[in-house]
Amino acid sequence: MRSQDRDESYMLVELPRREILVDFTKGSSADPNNWDFNKKAYNVLIALLAVLNSGVSSALPSNAVPAIMADFRQHDDGQRVLPTAVFLIGYVVGPLVCSPLSETIGRKPVLTWTFTVFVLATLACAFAPNWPSLLVFRAVCGTMGAAPQTVVGGVYADMFSDLRSRGRVMAFYMSVASFGPILGPIISGCSVQYGWRWTFRIDLILAGLSWIGLMFMSETFAPVILKQEAARLRRESGCNSYVTRQALQHGSSRHSITQIITRPITMLLFEPIILSTALYISLAYSLVFFCFQAYPIIFQGIYNFDVQTTSLTYIPIGIGAASAGVISVYYDTLYEKAKKKGTAWTNSPELHRLPLSCISGPCLTISLFWLGWTATRSIHWIVPVLSGLLFGLGYQMIFISLLTYVTDAYQIYSASALAASVILRSILGALFPLAADPLYSALGVGWATSVLGFVSLGCIPIPFALLYAGPWIRKRSPFWQRKYTGQTFPVRCLALVGERWPPRP
User: Where are the transmembrane segments (predicted)?
Assistant: First the structure.
């Protein structure tokens, strides 16, 4: 049943060859950018919960692995990282389909269906009968859990065209995305004393609540909303002339499908902005998972901490990460004040997003050297633990700054851009922890951690280079140009939706 409000949300535009373009009217309430505050807030909150669950699950078994291996009679220490590594391998596979698919069939179908499988796979982990089945279920969790990590950035880009509003919700998104992996080991460390299966049961409860909320989420991708309206008009009128701008711009379906599947990889390989930011974000992300292997080596080996106490040493990292969100919002406020005064530097999108990553890079590097050279028996344990404050602040601000910059630059292709980043960082996140034991055994705590510090030092110039060359690169990017250009048509506005077409004789 159609209401007058719905009719006034769409307009029909006559094109050559008697095609009818379906588009939003100016200020249309059906356009996600024009939704009321309550509707936007609900979608933002539910999407955040989905991202949090995905992040928590990624590192969830970290402190429960010894108990799991003992229960399944696994004695090869090299397999300790597998429950996390196979999850992150799933993070590589999932974005190749989920993120570009969300730019074709919509955000909601991708999120709801993948999260349904994610919940079921988490349930399967809690009742896994043996070690191989647990690894298979973890891989499924990772593949399905990749969807919120990449699609939600596109959801926010759909609803917030204003850079200030988008920047703030993206700051919350980045904070939750990176805080989840920190919360996971804390949950497993505190619950493993009641049995390792309780680790997954707790995660299942959290995921189940988020799943219920996702069922009531609204579709946010404007081209899909228009596509649904055009389909309704074709069905009700019996006329196949109704089309959308997206349908006119796409070629054959075969070409479209090929483009959908390969878009994240194409952007990663041929977009310098995507490649450089993905490298830096991947390093920061993989260092978090490296710490999940390094902290037990450091604090159990040097300070004789038990599993529960070791899990609490991650809290400063979480506090530092949360502080990064506050700093980002404060910087955004200063930017808006300068913009209102007409200050020249506010005209640069690079200066809007990248300065924070210029500051956070050195913070990340300093924290690694701090941890490596203060973790000795002669120095109180609180000193190396507090390095987590600077570490959390550094890697979180790198996330917020660079991913928000990418989202602003690529807008409707932001899901694929974020997917490219997720693919690369998941590969490194799966590989880095494998090096922890050999590296610390060969070099000791100080030099092993310093090696990572020198690697992070090499990435510090990336945001500075983008500040200088970013405008030049963006102007030559086909994806960046495509968000501004579209086909133009000799058109005549026909009417608001509700008028029959073709007209009656």
Answer: 41-60, 80-98, 110-129, 135-157, 169-196, 202-226, 273-299, 311-333, 354-373, 379-405, 412-435, 447-473
